[in-house]
Structures are given as structure tokens and as C-alpha cells.
Amino acid sequence: MRFFIIFLFALFLNASNILNINVKKINENIEIFLNFDTPYEGKLVQKVEKEKIKILLKNAKTLVPWSKKIDSNFIYQIELLPKNQDSELIIYTIEKAAVLAAKSSDGYSLKLLIKKYIPKNNKKVTVKKEKTAQNSEYNIFLFIIGAIIIILLFLLILFISSTKKEKIKKKTINVKNQKENEIEIKFEKNLDEHNKIALISFKGTNYLVIIGSTNLLLGKYKQNISNEEEFEKIIEENQPQLKDIFEKNEENEILNELESYKEKVSK
């Protein structure tokens, strides 16, 4: 009997009494702080049930049951109940949760951190989805830039080709106008001191004319006359007409000289 009393007294000395319990909500996590009258040396035994997590604090006594409502999206109530020489902490959950425990360096306090449970697979899937979304956005961005560059190059090529065509057209028109308006003396030959015969080309037609004191058109020719021999041949063909012209010119000169002589004598 005496040995049994000593054994109960030893158990009472080894147990720690829970003085108070505080609960804080930090972001989405819940922190529970337990303070003891002596350094806590007991063990924690966790048991997960449906919508409930039970944590047995061995060798930690509480005299009065304690409970608190929690405004959280995965926990709604916490209870602390005496259980012989131990205490039991019950966490009522809506979703799965994880509990992390840490003692202070002196052993007088115990911190329990309750976090929403996130499976590792879900994390990987989330990361992959985020990476896939980023890659798809990056690919769309590259596609848009590539399309813009192709459109700009196409417009540049069209602009260059159109300017080249306009230049060619302008040059062609200028050359045609020059040819149409061009007067060219192709061949010429002196007949006397005052007159010469010439072949003049104008707008694709050749004109045989006498230039000097007597300006006369002898004929016009559509064919191309390209050398001196053809020019001499045309002159020979017009010899009778040239002879008549020069005979008339000589008669006119003689008459002019007589008239001038009479005027001098009369004076």
C-alpha cells in the first residue's frame, strides 16, 4: 500500500499542468500555444479521423475542459479535454489539415501550427499548368511578332516593286517624247556660196530642202536614208528641179544688177 502511494506521487511529480491555451489566426494558418507550469517532457500522439484530428498530450494535465470556435475555411472548432493523467486536443476540420509541433528552448511552452493539407501531386500539377500557360502565352506572342514582320516585309517589297515600275514608265515616256520632237540634220551639201541642200529628219519623216537665199522643200521620204550614197542618189533624182531653181535665181540676179545700174546712172 505504501509502495502504491509513492508510485502515484511520482506520476504526479512527472506530469505538467497546462496553465493556459491561446489560439491565433495568421493568414490561413492556425497557431495554438500551450503554457505549462513545469518543462513539458511528454510525448504527442496524433490520430486522424474523419473531419477530426486528435492529439494526445501525454503527461500534460488540464483541470477544466476548454473549447473555441474558429473562423477558418478548413477548421471550425478546437477542444482541450482532460484524460486521466493526459490531455487530448481535438481539432474539428472541414478539409484535410497538417499539424506541426515545436517546443520552446526551456520547455515551458508548446506551439502547434495547423495548416491546410496540400498534396504534393497537386503542387506539381499546378506548376506544370502555370508553366504550360506561360509557354502558350509566349508562343502566341512570338506568333504575333512573326506575323507583323512578314506583313511589313511584304508591304516593303510591294512598295519597292511599284516605285521601280513607275520609274521605268516615266523613263519610257520621256524617251518617246524626245524621239517624236527631235529634229536632226542627217546630211548636207553646199550648192553654191549662198545655198546648200540638206536632208532633215523630223518625227520619222525625211525632208529634202534647200537652205540659204532660197528656202525650198524639194520632197519628203518615209524610208530610212542612212548613208551618203542614198543621199547623193536623192539629189540626182531632184537635179532637174534644182537646175530650174538655179536658172531662175541667175536670171533674177541679172535683173537685179541691171536695175541697180540704171538707178546709179540716173543719179
Concise structural overview:
By secondary structure, the protein is of the alpha+beta class. The protein has helices at 2-14, 120-181, 228-237, 239-266; strands at 16-26, 29-36, 44-49, 52-57, 60-61, 66-69, 75-83, 86-93, 97-103, 109-116, 183-190, 195-202, 205-212, 216-221.
How are the SSEs ordered, and which strands pair?
Elements: H1 2-14, E1 16-26, E2 29-36, E3 44-49, E4 52-57, E5 60-61, E6 66-69, E7 75-83, E8 86-93, E9 97-103, E10 109-116, H2 120-181, E11 183-190, E12 195-202, E13 205-212, E14 216-221, H3 228-237, H4 239-266
Parallel strand pairs: 1-5
Antiparallel strand pairs: 1-2, 2-10, 3-4, 4-8, 6-7, 7-8, 9-10, 11-12, 12-13, 13-14
Fraction of residues in H or I helices: 40-55%
Structure annotation, total helices: 4
**pLDDT averaged residue by residue:** 80
Low-confidence stretches: 1-12
Summing up helix and strand content along with how strands pair, one would put the structural category as: alpha+beta
Strand content: 35-45%
Cα-to-Cα separation, first versus last residue: 195 Å
Please name the defining characteristics of this protein.
267 residues, alpha+beta, 5-stranded mixed β-sheet, 4 helices, disordered N terminus
Structure explained in plain terms:
The protein is of the alpha+beta class and 267 residues long. The protein is built from 4 helices and 14 strands. The strands form 3 sheets. It has a 5-stranded mixed sheet with strand order 5-1-2-10-9. A hairpin with a 2-residue loop joins strand 12 (195-202) and strand 13 (205-212). 11% of the residues are buried.
